[in-house]
Amino acid sequence: MNDRATIPTLENSAFFMPFSMNRQFKKAPRLLSRAEGMHYYTPEGRKLIDGTSGLWCVNAGHCREKIVKAVQKQVAELDFAPAFQMGHPLAFEFADRIAALAPGDLKRVFFTNSGSESVDTALKLALAYHRARGEGHRMRLIGRERGYHGVNFGGTAVGGVVGNRKIFGALVAGVDHIRHTHDLQKNAFSRGQPKHGAELADDLERLCALHDPSTIAAVIVEPVACSGGVLVPPVGYLERLRAICDQHGILLIFDEVITAWGRLGKPFGAQHFGVLPDLITTAKGITNGTVPMGAVFMRERIYQAFMTGPENTIEMPHGYTYSSHPLACAAGLATMQVYEEEGLLTRAAELWPYWEEQAHALKGLPHVIDIRNIGLIAAIELAPRAGAPGMRGLEAHTKAFEKGAYIRVAGDIIALAPPLIIRKEEIDELFEIVRGVLRTIN
Ligand SMILES: Cc1ncc(COP(=O)(O)O)c(C=O)c1O
Predict the structure, then answer these.
(1) Mind listing the pLDDT tens digit for each residue in 64-85?
(2) Taking a C-beta distance cutoff of 8 angstroms, is the pair 321, 77 a contact?
(3) Which of 133, 215, 214 is nearest to 174 (CA)?
(4) What's the mean per-residue pLDDT of the chain?
């Protein structure tokens, strides 16, 4: 525990913080200096329950001994190894390990270092796949309103959170968006998948009619749009999207940066929904957030489309210096071991009913206009304050920090997704803090 007096003032710090209100934060910082299991600790030694798994990534809880030890061992043994025309054994072992968990024939894995890189990699794979098959005219990429696909150029372009796009100009050419599925008039206070809205998938038909389907390479959606406010897909929606893609030869990409690794009670969200995409992007929980890593899974026919021509050609001129970094592979292998030993990839399914009850018990508290949930995710949407959208959400975030919980908000939507190791008493504790916070917000 550090002495409060030793905490430096941050007002003139060089650190340009990402996705943060820099000036406000540096005047009144919320710092975390240690973590263990379900909890963070502030430099003053205050304990906070982690309500959003860090940034939706620490699925097995913090500082897990097996993962920490595996990384410590690895860094002393092989700190870095190039992955271009070279290799190290753990990369192959880890790819096989996670491929075994993937749905259908999505058994080929391309490593990246983040969700953003996974998304841009998947978009490039989609374009190159069509070109390899003689369909290079398929150049358009379709995203969805309110979708979040990271912050690189491709992901920003297909993303649909307006605030994340509007200051960056024209982004990538040939991108369009289908409508989002959020409909509070019909679906408020849904438990699990909302009943209404499967027909919103037909919006893809509208874009096919507008652009001609033979110009469309891929559609990317999050099975559950998490960062954009936890938008759960209506019953039948993902199935319909799959059918339309099949009809027109369009690749379907599921961005599972959050929904993979047990969040919905199965290793991948695709398995929970029973819909098989052509590519899956992941990151975050792949290493329990311990070392940055991402991965793209692809179906066999996509991989095979690249494995043609002379063997002395580089099949995919793409990759990162740190693709399959030894520390990430070591962390990932240890993470998978912890997930397996503790049944964490299916634990959300067991906790789901209890979690759902506790979440929906907040109905009726001031400003709450919707509560929704799926797997071990819940969102509490607050009515925006007149003339100041987002301010109630911000207040909820800072008040929760004062009362002993770390939670994420997207505008006026509180998003909860705790580590999958959470116990029922801790679910109670988390919602009790949120209840207390909601009672004090004006
Ligand atoms: C669905 C989705 N895609 C991509 C990303 C970007 O991941 P990263 O921040 O690791 O680049 C995120 C991050 O929250 C995400 O939720």
Answers:
(1) 999 999 999 999 999 999 999 9
(2) no
(3) 215
(4) 97
Ligand 1 centroid – CA 256 distance (Å): 9
Ligand 1 pocket: which of 52, 112, 144, 148 to mutate (most atoms <8 Å of CB)?
Answer: 148
49 within ligand 1 shell (Cβ under 6 A): no
d(CA 64, CA 338): 9
Q: What is the dihedral of CA 290, 402, 23, 113, to 10 degrees?
A: 10
Say if ligand 1 is within 6 A of residue 141 CB. Answer: no
Q: Whose CA is nearest to atom 13 of ligand 1?
A: 150
Ligand 1 nearest atom to the CA of residue 283, by list position: 10
Per-residue tokens: 173: 């050419």
Q: Can you give the pLDDT at residue 23? A: 97
CA–CA separation, 388 and 365 (whole Å): 20
Transcribe 129-190 into DSSP letters.
HHHHTT-TT--EEEEETT----SSHHHHHH---HHHHGGGTT-STTEEEE-----HHHHTT-
Atom index in ligand 1 nearest the CA of residue 259 equals: 1
Show the low-confidence residues of the chain (pLDDT under 50).
1-3, 5
Q: Please compute, for residue 420, the number of CA atoms within 13 A of its CA located in the half-sphere on the CB side.
A: 31
Tell me the whole-structure pTM to 2 decimals. Answer: 0.97
Q: Listing from the earlier edge strand, what are the strands of the sheet with 175-178?
A: 108-112, 294-298, 279-282, 251-255, 216-221, 140-144, 175-178
CA of 115 to the centre of ligand 1 (A): 4
Q: How many CB atoms lie within 10 A of CB 295?
A: 30
Closest atom, ligand 1, to C-alpha of 227: 16
CA of 420 to the centre of ligand 1 (A): 19
Question: What is the bridge-based pairing of β-strands 377-382 and 413-416?
Answer: antiparallel
